[in-house]
Design goal:
about 300 residues; Phosphorylase Kinase, domain 1; Aminoglycoside 3'-phosphotransferase, Chain: A, domain 2
């Protein structure tokens, strides 16, 4: 089986076909499940066609998204690599770099500016009315690991207790999760298009200005808070600044935002821990990391630490 990590020549061939010319030097970039190659004006994403289908989702949505929200899609399809097919997507390379998870090195005033612009872009996404194939794609059921309903979250917590055969989950974590679940709404709504993974690693910014939101592989119908959560949670030391920006822009009380964000974090972390407990081959540090995050959520009261 051909190793996708050696797919540089394939990425170049795909880029040549998309641009109609030599793309120049292309460098491998970091990617979680994809192999990403970046040229001066093009980005190529490659994944084994037999792998997950989330890139298909992104490709289906890209031509229909609100103008100026993301990088334009140049080409997509299947390419033969060795004895198997790979799926690819080519995008125009947008100016800027990612602020990164936790916004390392970003000062407070810049964080506020970027958050204000990100909120505006997400608002454009939430106001978009998709039709046809885009609407069908967003409506497809996917296991996104987020908040679905109070009953589902309580069931997830109870399942953790069953799966925890080695007793690694402290009792206060399960009790804390249950307390959060009891404050949750009965159901999540599926009313607007959401990105559902818009942490700061998926944004590009240049000269203190947002230039693009990338990676729409988890996009679906949801409610705006599904995106506000990611924007605030992964802003590092600027969490309170970003919450303030969101509250002002959406005319939502900070307390209501904190409650909804706390519920969504509980759902995501419980889901992640369940996956780690069900996988015998999962590294021990995976579950340990989940438990650290849960401790910060429950004992550290992450969303209420600086509440007035």
């Amino acid at each position: 089986m051909t190793d996708l990590r050696q797919a540089h020549d394939t990425a170049r061939a795909i880029a040549v076909a998309a641009l109609g010319r030599d793309p120049g030097p292309m460098a491998a970039a970091e990617g979680n499940s994809h192999h990403v190659y970046v040229g001066s004006d093009i980005v190529v994403k490659i994944i084994d066609a037999a792998g997950h289908s989330r890139l298909n989702r992104e490709i289906a949505l890209a031509p229909h998204l609100p103008t100026g929200l993301t990088a334009p899609l140049l080409n997509s399809g299947l390419h033969r690599l060795g004895r198997r097919d790979v799926r690819y997507a080519c995008y125009t390379r947008m100016p800027g770099t990612s602020p990164g998870m936790g916004m390392p090195g970003v000062d407070g005033s810049t964080a506020r500016l970027l958050a204000e612009q990100a909120v505006q872009r997400l608002d454009a996404l939430h106001r978009w009315t998709p039709t046809g194939h885009a609407e069908q794609t967003l409506a497809e059921a996917i296991d996104h690991g987020g908040f679905v309903s109070q009953a589902a979250l309580i069931a997830e917590i109870e399942n953790l207790a069953v799966l925890d055969r080695h007793g690694i989950i402290p009792r206060h974590v399960l009790d804390g999760l249950t307390a959060i679940a009891k404050r949750a709404p009965l159901h999540a709504r599926a009313i607007v298009p959401v990105h559902a993974d818009c942490h700061w690693g998926n944004w590009l910014a240049h000269d203190r200005g947002v230039t693009a939101l990338l990676d729409f592989e988890w996009a679906r119908f949801g409610e705006p808070i599904d995106d506000w959560f990611f924007l605030a949670r992964f802003s590092g030391p600027h969490l309170e600044v970003v919450l303030d920006v969101i509250a002002r822009a959406t005319e939502t009380s900070p307390e209501a935002l904190r409650v909804e964000c706390e519920v969504r974090e509980a759902a995501h972390l419980a889901s992640d821990l369940r996956v780690a407990l069900k996988r015998p081959d999962a590294p021990a540090q995976m579950a340990a990391g989940n438990l650290r995050d849960l401790d910060e959520l429950i004992v550290g009261r992450l969303w209420w630490r600086h509440a007035r």
